[in-house]
Amino acid sequence: MDKDALKKIISHSKEYGFIFPSSEIYEGLNAIYDYAHNGTLLKNNIREYWWKSMVQLNENIVGIDSAIFMHPKTWVASGHVDAFNDPLIDNKDSKKRYRADVLIEEHIEKLNLKIKKEVSKAEKRFKEKFDKKEFLATNPRVKEITKSINEIKSKMVSAFEDDDLVLVKKLIDDLEIKCQVSGTCNWTEVRQFNLMFNTKLGASEDSSMDLYLRPETAQGIFLNYLSVQKTSRMKIPFGIAQTGKAFRNEIVARQFIFRMREFEQMEMQFFIQPGTQEDWFNQWKKKRLKWHLNLGIESDCFRYHDHDKLAHYADAACDIEFLFPFGFKELEGIHSRTDFDLKSHEKLSGKKIQYFDPLLNKNYTPFVLETSIGLDRMFLAIISNSLKTEILEDGTSRNVMNIPKPLAPNKLAFLPLVKKDGLPEYTRNIMKDFIHEINIVFDEKDAIGRRYRRQDAIGTPYCITVDHQTIEDDSFTIRDRESMEQKRINLSELKTIINDELSLNSLLKKLDN
């Protein structure tokens, strides 16, 4: 793993107009970022890919856009007022703050890496005779590490379920977990911090109401689910999708845009008949992983992680983790939320929000399957997987972003070979045929080689070079981002490339097969 990879991503993102630190002229705000011109285009394309794959490709899923402000009782019913906390611990020497559960999980991951090393050594030793399943079950060293992992998980889950922070601290001490900065085990006690932002609604201090900025978008769906069901005439099973901003006062905010205080979620709540949740949970796990793999990213970059410690509302939970520059971390969560949220809102509001099932001829509170992905994390996954530095045959290097072509900020760059002889005007005339379909860019500054490098660095899939021959026969040179190969094509061939490779429809069609 390249320790400097994240630094390179942050630097590249700023230099090429993807992400800027927010309020930078005033020294910025910690863990707050602005999306620049290229970043906004990429972010919009990711959101559109998610939205269309959820709503457009599924006849039983509809979308809403609920308000950021909701009645404060919403967060009492959901459990956020009492239970939306992070267990935090400080190292006395470095003064650095950590999430206690993350420290323990990272220790477990180190033990898993030891098992992987043992497996790797055995594979090299036994080659084609190697039986991985048998090795994991019989090797004494692996069995010892596995036993240790299971014991740690059991103690961690028990401690958090009982809200026993003393036991959490003891576990960290017993495992001799060290601070990454100071290298010491000199820890404070573990404390809980609520993550919601407070605000007020009203014209004066005396008459104002205390509100919260929403920490998730799901509750807006739950409050509206029955109205949506009736007006859309949906029958169970059906889903409601939503994208939007959420806010969490993260005490430990780091790793660029991976963990921010203002972020965007893409969530879908799927309402089902009680008792069917296990089947739907497994179905959505597979569907969501397929969505990610459809982008052409290597499957080794993803893995499932089943939760040992469940949230208060869940009876099953699984993360799709992605191999970020800092290791495997959660990208998307699939949660079986049971009927906790709907029953809690029904109880606190005093309003009946049950579903009438015409097939069973009875009312009941639906169970809910949730898929929730951070748009910012998906953005980081794509750019961290895409950014490459390549050494070319002539000894020079180039920075290239191999962003999945339908998601690239600009799909085509139109480059007149020179800024005279009518070539810029002719180039702009050709562009008119495509400007309504895809994002394109015009670039006439600098030598053609420099312009190619500039487009490589922002992930433009193809560069179209217009020269004097173009005026004669309407053909032009197309250069491929990955291979850097060039060939002459005409307008009809370019339109085929757009339809087959660059449009979002081409991505959705692959997903629907």
Describe what you observe in this structure.
It is a single chain. The chain contains 17 helices and 23 strands. It is an alpha+beta fold and 513 residues long. It is globular, with a radius of gyration of 26 Å. The two termini are 35 Å apart. The model has no long low-confidence stretch (mean pLDDT 92).
Total count of domains:
3
* Mean pLDDT figure: 92
Instruction: Please tally the β strands and state the result.
Output: 23
**Shape descriptor:** globular
Number of helices: 17
Q: Largest sheet, order of strands side by side?
A: 3-9-10-16-13-12-11
Largest sheet: 7 strands, mixed
Low-confidence stretches: none
SSE order and pairing:
Elements: H1 5-15, E1 19-21, E2 33-35, H2 37-56, E3 61-63, H3 73-77, H4 80-83, E4 85-90, E5 97-99, H5 100-126, H6 132-138, H7 140-161, H8 165-174, E6 191-194, E7 198-201, E8 209-212, H9 218-232, E9 238-247, E10 262-272, H10 277-293, E11 302-306, E12 316-324, E13 327-338, H11 340-349, E14 355-357, E15 362-364, E16 367-374, H12 375-386, E17 387-391, E18 397-401, E19 412-416, H13 423-431, E20 440-442, H14 448-458, E21 462-466, H15 468-473, E22 475-480, E23 486-490, H16 491-502, H17 504-512
Parallel strand pairs: 3-9, 19-20, 19-21
Antiparallel strand pairs: 1-2, 4-5, 4-6, 7-8, 9-10, 10-16, 11-12, 12-13, 13-16, 14-15, 17-18, 21-22, 22-23
Helix pairs in contact: 2-12, 2-17, 5-7, 5-8, 7-8, 16-17
In summary, what is this structure?
With 513 residues, the protein is an alpha+beta fold. Helices cover 40% and strands 24% of the residues. It folds into 3 domains: 5-84 and 195-383, BirA Bifunctional Protein, domain 2 (2-Layer Sandwich); 93-193, no CATH class; 398-512, Rossmann fold (3-Layer(aba) Sandwich), CATH 3.40.50.800.
